[in-house]
Amino acid sequence: MAVVSWKEILLLTGLVVGCYWNSLSCGFVFDDVSAILDNKDLRPSTPVRNLFLNDFWGTPMAEERSHKSYRPLTVLTFRLNYLFSELSAASYHLLNVVLHAVVCVLFLRVCRSFLDKTSSLVAALLFAVHPIHTEAVTGVVGRAELLSSIFLLAAFLAYTKSTGADQSIVWAPIALTVVLVAAATLCKEQGITVVGICCVHEVFVAQGFTLPMLLDTLRQVLQGKDGFPYAVLQTLLKLIVLVISTLLLVIIRVQVIQSQLPVFTRFDNPAAVSPTPSRQLTFNYLLPVNAWLLLNPSELCCDWTMGTIPLVESLLDLRNLATLVFYTFLGLLAYHSLRYRHSSAKTVIMALSLIVLPFVPASNLFFPVGFVVAERVLYVPSMGFCVLVAHGFKIVSHLKKISWLMIGVLLTTHAVKTFNRNWDWESEYTLFTSALKVNKNNAKLWNNVGHALENQSNYAKALQYFLQATRVQPDDIGAHMNVGRTYKNLNKSKEAEDAYLVAKSLMPQVIPGKKYATRVAPNHLNVYINLANLIRANDSRLEEADQLYRQAISMRPDFKQAYISRGELLLKMNKLTEARDAYLRALELDRTNADLWYNLAIVNIEMKDPSEALKNFNHALELNPRHKLALFNSALLMQESGDLNVSSQV
């Protein structure tokens, strides 16, 4: 295997820096907000072990609302970023750029195992500049793809050293491969698919088998004419060890998510809840859609959910032709690569394994995922695409000037597109407005532009986007909630209440014995909280507000915010015992909330129980020593009670 020279490393690194240096001026946008800004697992005050108990977003894996995305090693790198620069976005983006450069170098080294020196460099250069990677590199949460890819490629390189000079098995590289596969999987789930890539390489590249040869060997063994050749037995032993280790990793991963799939709504992935054959036709059509993004990354979008891609509801839909062409082309490539032994076939089979196997977990073909299309999941599959392009370049390389001109134009246009695409990730407003230029049928995008404007306190303009979201997707509960909240910010209470009532009317009815969360996003329950908070400003409607809080609690007994809001209302209604019980129930769900302990202490004061109030104030201060209200009220309480000893202790 040819080594990678320093000149090639510098060339790839320089190209990556040239394409992505402007990403350093971008902030935290879209999923970065949940993964970085709102994730307590990044804070030094959170025990490191929590990273291995919570999902990617900081939610305990055991909770129903968890996305079940278990990526503790990725979160650990976020935590290291926070340790050095807290929430300075530039440092997070810088590390992503460095990691992408590392991936490019490793990819070049991998290509050298089945491509010649020039073609492998072309593949690596194309991979370095491909615009489809902006979401994985410029979006901070894309680090999961980058880290997983590093370990994936390293695992493959380790496995290629598992055969000795005398064709014997070298076990140390196989053991290292298993460790690296585990690391890749702990960065992102698709990392485990490298095992399949190693198997393909072992059988069709290292051992040089073709599918007819394998079938012929199997037929002879079954007929008793001959046993397995020694080389085949060696290969089987290696693959069996690798596959068994992988199955153990899968079992552990299933245990981590407690055998539960995450809860997604029909807005996240409409086809997942569609009837047959619409579901199957749509999911299969998404394959050529993803292929087209690799071929022509001219129109990129950060969010492909909701109505972005209309459902394929009939066999007569012309889009089925795209699916048919895709499968025909894929089948021809597979036939070519599995039937022949020459180097071209080996290159194509490796390209296909890099494209297909890492994409399978995100394909929706075997189990639904929480998105329709996501550009970042094409990060590893694009490696196979780049190998195919480089192999095509090799085939036409006899046309020296034309072939190099074509590659030069391709690299230049892709580099420029990548550089310009990075600016879209500068802020949430720029990101989502750029997405609306590509797709105006996604209500989520209209909502997100509205949120960006709302964060700038531009409520009037935000309202226009929220209203457009309700027109694009009339049954989008969240959009109507956004309209209601914005009307409230504009001091239009009547319009706000009307919008909340529309959202409430869209909520599914409670089905006895069936979990509510399996049918609707838990955050949609906030419509009851928002509506109750709005109408309780009118003292004559306090009971009506309380009914809304109780309705939310009946739908989801672990809905902490409902207990908190209800406790505040009951305190206002002077129902002190019920208010105390509401806060105690909320504390059962979250004992680390300083505000909850403070609110409970206020109830204790109203119930003439100063000692209990002081105890709860102290709980709040233990959790947040800078809780000003707790400091002030506890000091006031101690002064009134004359408890100088306690005062001096505090």
TrEMBL record:
UniProt KW Ubl conjugation keyword: no
TPR repeat placement: 443-476, 560-593, 594-627
Location of the DUF1736 domain: 259-330
Keywords carried by this UniProt record: Endoplasmic reticulum, Membrane, Repeat, TPR repeat, Transferase, Transmembrane, Transmembrane helix
Pfam families from the UniProt entry: TMTC_DUF1736, TPR_11, TPR_2
Entry's family note: Belongs to the TMTC family.
Native organism: Amphiprion ocellaris
Keyword Transferase: yes
Membrane topology recorded in Swiss-Prot or TrEMBL: Multi-pass membrane protein
Protein name per its UniProtKB record: dolichyl-phosphate-mannose--protein mannosyltransferase
Transmembrane regions: 9-30, 90-111, 140-159, 168-186, 192-215, 236-256, 318-336, 348-371, 377-396
Pathway participation: Protein modification; protein glycosylation
GO molecular function: dolichyl-phosphate-mannose-protein mannosyltransferase activity
Protein localization: Endoplasmic reticulum; Membrane
Database matches in SUPFAM superfamilies: TPR-like
Coarse class of the protein's main subcellular location: endoplasmic reticulum
PROSITE patterns linked to this entry: PROKAR_LIPOPROTEIN, TPR, TPR_REGION
Annotated EC: 2.4.1.109
Top EC class for this record: transferase
InterPro entries (UniProt xref): TMTC_DUF1736 (IPR013618), TPR-like_helical_dom_sf (IPR011990), TPR_2 (IPR013105), TPR_rpt (IPR019734)
GO cellular component, as recorded: endoplasmic reticulum; membrane
